[in-house]
Amino acid sequence: MVVSADIFISKAQMFLCCGKKKKRQIPHSSCLDMAVQIIAVDLGLKPAVLYDLNSACAEQIQRYVSSLHEAGVLNTTLRIFSISGSCLVVNCNLMKEHLSEVLEKKSLLTVDVCAWKEQPSLIVMDSSTKHMVKEMLDFIMDKEDQHPSIIVVEEELHERWNLCTLFGILLGYPTSYWFNQAQSFENCLSMTPLVVNKVWVCWPICDTKHSSCLYSFSVPEVLWAEIDTFIQNWVERLRGRFCKQTVLIKLSISKETVILPTVAL
């Protein structure tokens, strides 16, 4: 399917601009990056994307996504999830499959980054994380029957969840950070070498190819030897899904090691 970039740019400018005095126009490159993310969710290449383009509210994002569906450039009815002030655009069918797989096959590496630790370590997915994933899956299945365009996860539900771990899972990352939030929200990643993994794709539009980052996640370098094979398998499964579509091309992987004075999760 050949999709015009102009549609995505015009819809983003129409629905996503925000600002009290004067609505700030969104750069075309940012519109295209968001378009690639939405297309990837629509095609089933990722279960969800976190909207972080600007401070647009859930209603604006919903109107943007709905307008794309009405324009015929999306095949899947995507839902907007609002969790603790953050908005995700979600492919509910893929998300249900993904969460079920996480529960059944334990297809997630969890990295313990509690502040008191000398260095991060791999841990088995604990019972609280399993319960959180199960609650999220049940919540999606319950809300799906009601067909809401915007699904709000109430605080009484998510206040007992580790949102750092949850968002890593919802976004389809192969690894997710965990810490005991009953003790502290700090972590032990300060000045710790992190391998930043990025998955890149190209979107051929007109006579150019717009390159965009589809996934970006980090892994402590000290754990790389233990995690490398798992991530390679995750990449191969992604390649398998990627080969089934023709909209995006040239999937590639990049890695770099960074050391940061502070790491916010």
UniProtKB/TrEMBL annotation:
It comes from the Eukaryota. PANTHER family: UPF0739 PROTEIN C1ORF74 (PTHR31366). Belongs to the UPF0739 family. This is Uncharacterized protein.
